[in-house]
Amino acid sequence: NLSGIIMGVETSCDDTCVALLTTEGKILSSEVSSQYAIHNPFGGIKPNHAARAHEANLPFVMGNPFPSNFFSQSVESALKKAGMKDLSLVSGVAVTRGPGLRGSLEVGLAFVKQLCREHNLPLLPVHHLEAHALTVRLPQRETSTTSGREAEPVEFPYITVLVSGGHSQLLLCEGVMKYRLLGGTVDDSLGESYDKVARLLGMTYEEGGKGLEKLAVEGDPQRYKLPRPLYKVKKSCDWSFSGLKNAVNLLLASIREEEGIPKEANMVQTSRKTAADIAACFQNTALEHIITSTERGIDYCTINLDVQPESVVVCGGVASNERLRGMLREMAKRKQMKIHYPPVRLCTDNAVMVAWAAIEGMRAGNIDIIRPEEARFDEV
Ligand code: KG4
Ligand code: ZN
Questions:
Q1: Is residue 195 lining ligand 1, measured as CB closer than 6 Å?
Q2: What is the per-residue pLDDT for 150?
Q3: Ligand 1: which residue has its CA nearest to atom 14?
Q4: Ligand 1 within 6 A of 166 CB?
């Protein structure tokens, strides 16, 4: 077991993240460099650009050959904010080994390998989804803006609704490295469907799900009837979102035709009320679908697995959605369960969760503490 300070590095997608954490779980610093400015013009992530940006952003410690005023220099600023001059107090480096974009993962891993070699530190490979799922067990979480019971320690077993841009899974977490997949998406992730609908309405990649949520607040969720995904499948805890997105696309086409709005016109700018109603209807349908499967998953645990999870936990980027939090809170009340959500900045990708998952793994005695040359990445 390592004691002292663990550095976390996360580069699975388009955020370059570095954090420093004590092994007790105290957050010393957490840097997140977003790449919106790079990907916005493409309306989505360009994997090659993402990898290059991670490359430019991370390697100051190795003598970054690309001085850049565009990015914060992640490792340097993480050390600085933690009040540290160098890596002498760091006892290990945790890094996301996957799943994620191949190029992005490779850059992060190559960087951490070199860092560990140069400073003679052990490398701690972490699964990205496990990191999301364990965030809620961090002892020193700041309180979130939404009321809830965030301050209480979350004990196993709990149900995790893991909804991000890359993944959507319903998990029963019984312990560190003990997860049961109850259901998941059969096509798009929830975040992806938010992003796609946001784009259909004319929003930028940066606005994405967050922008859609904001717009939906102004809308009437009853105005349009959208098909409920997997409505006829009564025994599954799975999710599906691509049909819903298609339905929004078709609805949008017919509204454009009726109202004489050209195909290229930005819906949010041309007819904000209509765009807001569509956003609200989409959100309502998607989130009700999330709740139905989650409730079914909880019943499955009680009836078929004889496990009574005490709490519901929501994590991943979409977990910052206030409407989702509210609906899950209602559901938890019905089920007489507790509800927990990490603060927003720990819901979206960050390196605190990566370092913390490594610490949990060490405590439970089931993480590989390896030499850097042994590190491999997983793409899926
Ligand atoms: O966990 P995350 O930062 O990255 C992945 O691992 O994918 O999640 C990003 C996703 C994006 O799809 C983004 O649109 C979505 O989370 N998202 C939201 C909200 N904030 C972020 N979706 C709905 N409502 C939000 N408030
Ligand atoms: Zn993520």
A1: yes
A2: 43
A3: 209
A4: yes
- DSSP letter for 205, please: T
For residue 170, give both structure tokens.
């319903």
- Please, which residues bridge with residue 8 across strands? 19, 94
CB-neighbour burial class of residue 136 (10 A; exposed 0-12, middle 13-18, buried 19+) = buried
CA 120 to chain centre: 31
Name the residue at shortest CA distance from atom 20 of ligand 1. Answer: 210
At 23, the amino acid letter reads T
- Are 213 and 133 in the same domain? no
Look up the pTM and report it: 0.86
Asked if 113 contacts 375 with a C-beta cutoff of 8 angstroms, the reply is yes
E strand intervals along 104-263:
123-127, 158-163, 168-175, 178-184
CATH of the domain at 292: 3.30.420.40
Query: Which domain covers residue 97, as residue numbers?
Result: 5-142+347-374
> What does the pLDDT read at residue 59?
58
Find the 263 Cα to ligand 2 centroid distance in Å: 33
Residues 183, 327 within the same domain: yes
CA dihedral 113, 119, 122, 124 (to 10 degrees): -50
User: Which numbered ligand comes closest to the C-alpha of 325?
Assistant: 1
- Shared domain for 74 and 108, answered yes or no, is yes
Give how many domains the chain has, as a whole number.
2
One domain, residues 252 and 287: yes
Query: Taking ligand 2, which is a single-atom ion, which protein residues have CB atoms under 5 Å away?
Result: 164, 349
What is the mean pLDDT of each successive set of 10 residues along the chain, which is 380 residues long? Answer: 88 88 93 76 77 73 40 72 88 91 86 87 93 89 43 84 93 93 96 96 93 98 96 91 97 94 92 97 98 97 95 93 96 95 88 96 85 68
Mark whether 211 and 188 lie in a shared domain.
yes
State residue 63's pLDDT score.
42
Same-domain check for residues 133 and 43:
yes
In 3-state terms, what secondary structure has residue 139? coil
